[in-house]
Amino acid sequence: MDEHFFITGGTGLVGTNLVPRLLRLSAGSRVTLLVRANDEAKMRLRVGSFAAWIEKIFGVADAVRRIRGVRGDVTMPRCGLKAEEWDEIVRSATCLIHGAATIRFDHSLSEARAVNVNGTESSLELARLCAECGPLKRFVYIGTSSVSGRRTGRVYEHELEVGQRFFNTYEQSKAESERLVRKHFDRFPCTIFRPSIIIGDSRSGRTTLFNVIYVPLRLLHRGFLRALPARPEALLDIVPVDWVTDAMARIMQLPESAGLVFHLTSGPARATKLGDLTRIAAEYFDEHSPGKEPRSVEFVSPEVWDRRLEEMRGRERTLMLQLGTLLPYIDIDRIFDSTNTDRFLEGSGLAFPVFSDYGGKILEYCLRSNWGKTLV
Predict the structure, then answer these.
(1) Which residues of the chain fall short of a pLDDT of 70?
(2) Measured between alpha carbons, how far is 321 from 333 in angstroms, rounded to an integer?
(3) Best exposed site among 145, 314, 340, 366 by fewest CB in 10 Å?
(4) Residue 195: enclosing H or E segment and its boundaries?
């Protein structure tokens, strides 16, 4: 049977890469995107541009015909949909994918919950009706490995709340959202994906989001980043978006993946050392965008970092303060166990890309797109 995918957050980084993979599952598959917009005309324009971009970038020739949008908002009752739109989705959706979320770290807890928790509740309400009245096969929740919060050591896929504290309200609200989804494991088929730090496509370098790891990379490119309060051997769990969405598209089709959580993470064997990442980036920028002097990053203690930060003034201090939300993630000693993911991908031919092999593609796209000012 041809699939009808209803997706929230479908125009984000993961969504823009997942949609073409879903359309390729069968010639008759179609996608409905929940889109926030001020009016119907703006919604249609946005969806039309998105579908045309999918055709151009991913070569899905009939994406414009197979992608449609409905105007709504996951924070509103019934996702803000018109009655006839809500009913049509209940009757026809075979798969609901909930990816809409605020990823800001500086929201108050109430602000974060308004989007992440309330949005998940609305999506689950729709899924319950789809399971009762329609052909729903799967509810997919796009979570995050950051629900582990400040935990150290090995983090398993089956674990969620083990008394951990959180670095920010994003982590806490996503943990609370995942708890809601887990409560529905025995009501209808649910699958949870927990990606770690997602970066661009390993083959093209393309990304639509220049946050998290891109912040220090840009500072390094501009010659501002000269030190970090971390160890060069610290492991960064970064994953390219093409591998993440290839894995999702495969795993979510398998009936036995229902009721399970999947870490889409690099793990210790495939993680990138912080020192290697900064060295690769510095060498690339020096070659392709040389500055007044060679770039390098010194690794210092938190005490030295704080002292240097206090001595900074003006623009330099403002720029360095941008790193505040990222610093907790670059020197935390933990490992994400990916037993479920590894088992379900065994024999698929889907190999995990190693950053040292594709890092140049990521950095080249940063420069070619002028850090997202011109997406190509």
Answers:
(1) 1
(2) 23
(3) 314
(4) strand 190-195
Handedness of CA 72, 78, 81, 85 (dihedral sign): positive
Residue 15 lies in a domain: yes
For helices 214-221 and 274-288, give the axis angle rounded to 10 degrees: 40
Whether residue 360 lies inside any domain: the answer is no
Q: How far apart are CA 374 and CA 159, in angstroms?
A: 41
CA within 13 Å, CB half, 180: 25
Mind listing the pLDDT tens digit for each residue in 77-127? 999 999 999 999 999 999 999 999 999 999 999 999 999 999 999 999 999
**pLDDT value, residue 281:** 98
pTM: 0.96
Please give the span between the terminal C-alpha atoms of the chain, in angstroms, as a whole number: 35
Which CATH number do you get for residue 71? 3.40.50.720
Structure tokens at 130: 């789809």
Domain count across the chain:
1
Residue with tokens 């069968």: 26
What range does the domain containing 126 cover?
Answer: 4-195
CA distance 340 to 329: 24
Give pLDDT, residue 1: 62
Does residue 263 form part of some domain?
no
